[in-house]
Specification:
This protein is of the alpha/beta class. The protein has nine helices and 17 strands. It comes from Sporosarcina quadrami.
Amino acid sequence: MERDTVAVDKQISEWFAHFHAFPEVSWKEVETTRKLAEILTSMDVKHHTFNDVTGVVAEIGEGEKIIAVRADIDALWQEVDGEFRANHSCGHDANMSMVLGALAYLKEQELGCRVRFIFQPAEEKGNGANSMIERGAVDGVSHLFGVHLRPKEEIPFGKVSPAIHHGAAIFLEGKIKGEDAHGARPQQGKNALDPIFALAAFLKTIHFSPYEPYSAKLTKIQAGGDSLNIIPGTATFGIDMRAQSNNVLKELKERVSNGIRSISELHNIEIDLNWSDYTPAAEVSEEAAEIAAEAIRESLDEDSFAPAIITSGSDDFHFYTIHRPDLKAAMIGIGADLGPGLHHPDMTFNYDALDIGARVLASTLQKASFAN
């Protein structure tokens, strides 16, 4: 990159410091959107926001062909040092900063087409990508790239992977609707706890091929009050389900649905279900990943290249390829010495990874701009 790397590196750090200090949760990224628009205006980059959702879409370059990069902009809501607050423990503050850095590097470079920058809301809710798809963010786009910091157990600092193969995920919230009973007269009610125990046992009986990673586990149970002599008739529960492929997750959902239906009939009790936050598994384009691989080797060196990452985590980035199967997409993984882990309230990483990510991403986008 011809542009002054020291100046861009410093600017990336300043952007990161701001986003890190002012996190906002999904669909409420109002000030984050305003700041992004302010930065893009100062860079003289054309962009637009939306009247009904947060997020920004910007564009540089010319021509009919369009490639794009997406950055997620929302934070998590979690307990940090005894206080619940917004927190960028998933590294979206870093993702925004790396994408802005790539834009800064590319702005004075020769490009083979238009490059679109999608600053997307609500990744943590699993439906922010859909909001951008509905508003035309990937209309006409041939190649789409993403970028994300990776935990140190996946790749170390200084290593960069051309593709992250995320798994699929979906969440279930259920409500058991029975009747309370006195602890001495259980026959007079409908115990909500027995179906919970049956459900916990049932989940352990679901098996697929050991070569297909998957899991289904209870993550929330709420039942009863302070009185120990009342058998609760109402309970709520939550289940987190994941699989490395979309087909296995689909079958897993069917198995769980059928199992809960049988438990409901067995205990003669009503169970309401609400499925939410489905996130598909990655559909990685070999062409897009190869472009990123070449960019890693050329902008860094051969020793910095890491193989594709397979992770049970999920990301709504992959909705773009579900809705647009012709889209050639890959998400680049940046080694950052990140720990204790993504979504941990005390997550931290080596900030030198930010400029590495920006330079690799800029090189990737420039190469993709000239691809057929």
